[in-house]
Amino acid sequence: MEFVVGIDVGSLSTDAVILGEEENILGYSIVGTGDSSTDAAREAMDSAAANAGVDMVRASLIISTGYGRAAVPGSGRQVTEIACHAAGAYHFFSDTELVIDIGGQDSKVIRVGKGGKVLDFAMNDKCAAGTGRFLEVMSAKLKIPLDQMGTFSLAARGEASISSVCTVFAESEVVSLVARNFPKEEIVKGLHRSVVNRVWAMTRQMSVKGGVTMTGGVAKNTGVVALMEERLGRKINVPAEPQIIGALGAALMALRHLKGAAAG
């Protein structure tokens, strides 16, 4: 059985997807990147291969993406994560015209054309505000598990105002709100609003009428998704496992590269 591998080495997690000849996902994995991109890549690929029941040495092609893409052993090609998220999102939702990817250390909005082609994009990689790292810091400060922040946000009756756009200053605001016995649900919703506003500042530059798809780990946060939908005034597509979309896009490119080479 022929298969390809896509691997996305991010700042916080490393994700691998194994794809069969019919663009079917055979297996995938998500591991922490830690202090070695190479070790994380090996672990992610081995785990995905075990889930798929295949031997990694038989992979026809490995394409890597993400911050650590150059550190992936055996990678035959390297592709930007922007192109990969566009391809992966389009694979699941063919109406996608805009991809919102909120990752660990950056956030991106990508305007997508037919076939998942990138038409335009905007990116915030200069400041942690508006990223998963921002929410991770606030989760620790509030002593609320990261995967429960969405539930807290949706349960809020009101909303705290977080005026700072800097993570450090926003953290000070959170400390002050906690000291004043502000409900944690309302603080969390205010933090989510802050993230959404940062992303919206980029999103409004892209004039789209079609579908919007969210990818990346923050797409698992139902509170952020709900506020983003409110801001956009439309429903957002969220893949069943949004964290692997970059790796899926890399795998799709690997498969199409092989098919193109065979046809040529």
Please describe what this structure looks like:
This protein has 264 residues and is of the alpha/beta class. It folds into two domains: 1-93 and 241-264, Nucleotidyltransferase, domain 5 (2-Layer Sandwich); 97-238, ATPase, nucleotide binding domain (Nucleotidyltransferase, domain 5, 2-Layer Sandwich). 41% of the residues lie in helices and 20% in strands. The protein has helices at 37-52, 81-92, 132-142, 149-155, 167-179, 184-203, 222-232, 245-263, and strands at residues 3-9, 13-20, 25-32, 62-65, 77-78, 96-102, 107-112, 118-124, 211-215. The protein has a five-stranded mixed sheet. Helix 3 (132-142) runs parallel beside helix 5 (167-179), helix 3 (132-142) runs antiparallel to helix 6 and helix 4 crosses helix 7. It is globular.
Task: Just give the CATH class of the largest domain.
Answer: Alpha Beta
The biggest beta sheet reads: 5 strands, mixed
Order of helices and strands: EEEHEEHEEEHHHHEHH
How many strand segments?
9
Tell the overall outline. globular
Rg from alpha-carbon coordinates: 19 Å
Q: Strands across the major sheet, in which order? A: 3-2-1-4-5
CATH level-two architecture of the largest domain: 2-Layer Sandwich
Which runs of at least 5 residues are low in confidence (pLDDT < 50)?
none
- Structure classification: alpha/beta
Domains (count)? 2
Overall average pLDDT: 92
Distance from first to last alpha carbon: 22 Å
- State the helical fraction: 40-55%
Could you give me the name of the CATH homologous superfamily of the largest domain?
A: ATPase, nucleotide binding domain
Contiguous helical run count: 8
